[in-house]
Each structure stands twice: as C-alpha cells, then as structure tokens.
C-alpha cells in the first residue's frame, strides 16, 4: 500500500512541474500544505491537488508555481485530481473529490515502471532545485509574504508612511508583499499630475498623506513588473532614489490596473522644475550633486549577505528625475534597469522590449556598437545621459545677471521628436554636442561643471568619467565652497 501512495504522489508531482514559458502574469494564491511558510504565495499558476488515502480520507494541497502549468495538469484519475487556475486566489475554495472510493490494486506494470519513474522525477527535482537555488541568489526581488491578519492588525493600522517604512524595511528593501497590497487598496486617487507613454501619474492620499500613484497601461506590464522587481531589491533605499511604498496588480472597473505607489514630490520632475524655475550656481551644484549621488548608489554593488547588486538605469533624463522640497533630486523610473552581481556572476537585462529615450542615447547605442554583455557599457551610457542633464541645469543658472530659457539637449540640431536616424547623424556621424556658452567659464562652479559634462560626452565610452569620479569631484567643489563660507 505504501507503493500505491508513492505512485500517486509521483503522478501529482510530475504534473505540477510541467511548465510553459508563455505566461507572464503573476497571481496571489492560497497556500496550504507542508511546504507553505504562510497562507498565501505569489506565482504564475495557482494549483490544487487532492488524493484519496487508503483510509478513505482526502489529502489536499494548495499553492503556486513561478512557472505556468500546461493543460495536462488539469487531469484526473479515480483517486487523484489536479487543477491549475490563473487568477487571484482562484484555488481558495476549490474541492475536487466529492466521494471517496476504494483505491485499485497495484498492477504488475506499475511495479516495474515505478523505479524508472522515480529516477526521472528525482533527476527533474534535482535540476529544478538547483535552478531555484541559483535564481534565489540572482534575484532578491520577490516580495516577502507575511500573514494578512498581522498586516492589518500590527503593521498598517494607524501607521504613517514614515512609521511603516521605518519599522518594516530594516534591510532597505521594499515592504512585505501583503503590506503593499493593503496600502495600495487604501489609497484614494485625487488628481492626475502627469501622463506619458507608460500611462498616468496621480496624486493620491493614504491615511491623510500624499503619495504618487503611477498607473501603467496594460501594454507596459513589463515595465511595471521590472520596477516592482528593482524597487524590492535589498538596500536600494537612498535619499536620492525615489522612495518606493507599494505595488499592486488589481482589477478595477472590469480592467486590470498596474499600480506603483511612491513618495510624492510637489516640485514634480526636474524637466518641469527647470521650465518654471531658475537657480544660482550653488543651487545648480546641489541639484547636480544629488543626482550623481543617486546614480552612484545605483551603480555600486554592495557585498555581503545583505548586499545589493549593481544597477544601471538606462533611461536617465530630466523627466525621470524628481525635485524634492529641500531642492535635492531623486532618480525615478527604473523600468529599463539592468542588474549585475559579481558575487552571483549574473547580468540581468530584463525582458522589456522598450528602449530608452532617443534624445539621451549615447553614441554606442545609436550606432549599435555597445557591448551588451558588459555591465560597464550600461553604466557608461548613464554617464553620457547625466552629462546632458547637467547641461540642462546649467542653462537655467543665473550668472552675471543672465539666464537662458530652458531647452532640451540638441534642441537646435534635431526635430522636436527626433527619430533614431536623426540622433545618429548628429551624435555619431557629425559628432556634435550641446552648445556650451563661454560665459559659463566666468563662474567657478559652472566652469567646473562645464569640464565635467564634456568629460561625460567622449565618443569613446571607456574615456568617460565614472559616476563615482564625478561624485568625488563635485563633493570636493562643494566642500571648498562650504569652507569658504566658514572662513568668511
């Protein structure tokens, strides 16, 4: 009789590990059984398996897999059932057997085939577990699950955003997944504050506090998933990276909505800020320094058990940088980010087919000579884009009583919405760069920033400054200004 049970367990398990590479959506599933740490899990497939024991009792397991299960798993015999489904908690109240029946006698064929089946299953399990172990080192991005009652009772409650983030993010990663869902479903949308190719940004309210809600269009699901993945990275939190609060995929008004909830900043993007505001040279330096501090935090890998992989942004521009109330900047929109870890030896470029913004593309991206297997190549494209953002800030800096109107990079060389070929001709063929007025050299700060931006624009990527070198240079300049103030 134990052999019968083993065979039926093998049958259920062999169905459960048949996967399909076509599913991309993730679902919340009820989890019940000896392998469940919590009462819910997240995966591409929810499942229920039931089996009639020798005693006539029904053994039932519920859970999820990170790979989709094909139609074969929705099968049955007289004494075993398996069901797969694809929506939130679709496996919660499902029962497959109504009446218990006597199990059949083990056939001679079963006895002879069982050792072969066991060997194949063990081999598949070993391969699967090895892959999962490697994936766990590769990605620390899947949100942690905690008991929903504990979320409502002891974490969300009457907490402020500050309390919630301080008490649940000691590792510097995102909030536990069910906390994120609870917060997301308590947010009230107030007004739309921006639109883009990704969707819309709304100002929302959560327990009386402003939050930003980025609502992705359904065609940009990969960007939503990538940002969620990156924002849940351990030790990503930094004052110059946009503060992440929660992410949720939910059905509203008969359609799927993808929400990303972050800190809200009244000043909006740097692009918007520079349209309506000018700065003095010291203010210019503070904006530039805060941006490079955020970029360095992304680019640097932090080693250790609670480490952080290196991240390249790949779409750095003034629209993807926000200005905080203290006039510091924070970097946003990580939907195209590339992740690299020397420790785990992997380069993860994601599955997003979207490309960066053509106006900010480096020469090697435009002429397609970039080495896509090298993480350093992606960091070098970020530095190129940083040089262009620096130029945008400098144009809006008062010097000798004069200031220029805001203009985007290459405004006088390409159309308003330049094509890939437009940018390639200007940047790669003609090797032009944004015009840098000689008047900037009359101010010590702008003169230093002029030199820095030009060293970000070298045609040869390896000749460009690193983000860390730029940060050290600007810090040194800022420290000398502070010292001068103290001396006075």
Automatic annotation (TrEMBL):
Tell me its EC number(s), please.
2.7.11.30
Question: Which cofactor does the UniProt annotation name?
Answer: Mn(2+); Mg(2+)
A Pfam entry, by short name? PK_Tyr_Ser-Thr
Q: Which residues form the GS domain?
A: 159-186
InterPro entries per record: GS_dom, Kinase-like_dom_sf, Prot_kinase_dom, Protein_kinase_ATP_BS, Ser-Thr/Tyr_kinase_cat_dom, Ser/Thr_kinase_AS, Snake_toxin-like_sf, TGFB_receptor
Signal peptide residue numbers: 1-21
The residues that hold ATP are 214
Q: Where would you say this protein principally sits, based on its record?
A: membrane
| Protein family | Belongs to the protein kinase superfamily. TKL Ser/Thr protein kinase family. TGFB receptor subfamily.
- Catalytic activity field: L-seryl-[receptor-protein] + ATP = O-phospho-L-seryl-[receptor-protein] + ADP + H(+); L-threonyl-[receptor-protein] + ATP = O-phospho-L-threonyl-[receptor-protein] + ADP + H(+)
What name does the UniProt record give this protein?
receptor protein serine/threonine kinase
Residue ranges constituting the Protein kinase domain according to the UniProt record: 187-481
Q: Where in the cell is it found?
A: Membrane
Its membrane topology: Single-pass type I membrane protein
A single MF term (Gene Ontology): transmembrane receptor protein serine/threonine kinase activity
Q: Which UniProt keywords apply?
A: ATP-binding, Glycoprotein, Kinase, Magnesium, Manganese, Membrane, Metal-binding, Nucleotide-binding, Receptor, Serine/threonine-protein kinase, Signal, Transferase, Transmembrane, Transmembrane helix
Q: Where are the transmembrane segments?
A: 108-131
Which species? Engystomops pustulosus
One biological process term from GO is: angiogenesis
Annotated GO CC locations: BMP receptor complex
């Amino acid at each position: 009789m134990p052999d019968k049970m083993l065979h039926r367990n093998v049958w259920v398990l062999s169905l459960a590990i048949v996967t399909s590479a076509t599913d991309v959506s993730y679902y919340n599933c009820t989890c019940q059984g000896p392998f469940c740490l919590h009462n819910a899990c997240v995966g591409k497939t929810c499942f229920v398996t039931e089996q009639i024991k020798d005693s006539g009792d029904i053994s039932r397991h519920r859970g999820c897999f990170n790979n989709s299960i094909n139609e074969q798993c929705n099968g049955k015999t007289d004494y075993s059932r398996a069901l797969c489904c694809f929506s939130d908690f679709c496996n919660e109240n499902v029962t497959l057997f109504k009446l218990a029946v006597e199990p059949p006698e083990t056939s001679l064929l079963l006895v002879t085939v069982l050792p072969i089946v066991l060997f194949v299953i063990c081999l598949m399990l070993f391969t699967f577990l090895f892959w999962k172990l490697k994936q766990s080192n590769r990605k620390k991005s899947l949100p942690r699950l905690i008991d929903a009652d504990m979320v409502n009772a002891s974490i969300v409650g009457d907490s402020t955003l500050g309390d919630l983030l301080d008490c649940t993010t000691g590792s510097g990663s995102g909030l536990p997944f069910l906390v994120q869902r609870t917060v997301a479903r308590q947010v009230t949308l107030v007004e739309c504050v921006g639109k883009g190719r990704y969707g819309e940004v709304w100002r929302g309210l959560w327990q009386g506090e402003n939050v930003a809600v980025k609502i992705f269009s359904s065609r940009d699901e990969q960007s939503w998933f990538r940002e969620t993945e990156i924002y849940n990275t351990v030790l990503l939190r930094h004052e110059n990276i946009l503060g992440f609060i929660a992410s949720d995929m939910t059905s509203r008004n008969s359609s799927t909505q993808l929400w990303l909830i972050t800190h809200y900043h009244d000043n909006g993007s740097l692009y918007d800020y520079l349209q309506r505001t000018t700065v003095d040279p010291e203010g210019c330096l503070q904006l530039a320094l805060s941006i490079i501090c955020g970029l360095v935090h992304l680019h640097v890998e932090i080693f250790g058990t609670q480490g952080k992989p290196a991240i390249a942004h790949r779409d750095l521009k003034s629209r993807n940088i926000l200005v905080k109330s203290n006039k510091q900047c924070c970097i946003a929109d990580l939907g195209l980010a590339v992740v690299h870890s020397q420790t785990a030896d992997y380069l993860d470029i994601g599955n997003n087919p979207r490309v960066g913004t053509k106006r900010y593309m480096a020469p090697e991206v435009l002429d397609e000579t970039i080495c896509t297997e090298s993480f350093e190549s992606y960091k070098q494209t970020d530095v190129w884009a940083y040089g262009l953002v620096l130029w945008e800030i400098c144009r809006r800096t008062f010097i000798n009583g004069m200031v220029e109107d805001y203009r985007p990079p290459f405004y006088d060389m390409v159309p308003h919405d330049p094509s890939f070929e437009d940018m390639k001709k200007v940047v790669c063929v003609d090797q032009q760069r944004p015009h840098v007025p000689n008047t900037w050299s009359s101010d010590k700060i702008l003169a230093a920033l002029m030199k820095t931006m030009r060293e970000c624009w070298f045609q040869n990527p390896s000749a460009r400054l690193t983000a860390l070198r730029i940060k050290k240079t600007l810090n040194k300049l800022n420290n000398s200004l502070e010292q001068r103030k103290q001396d006075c």
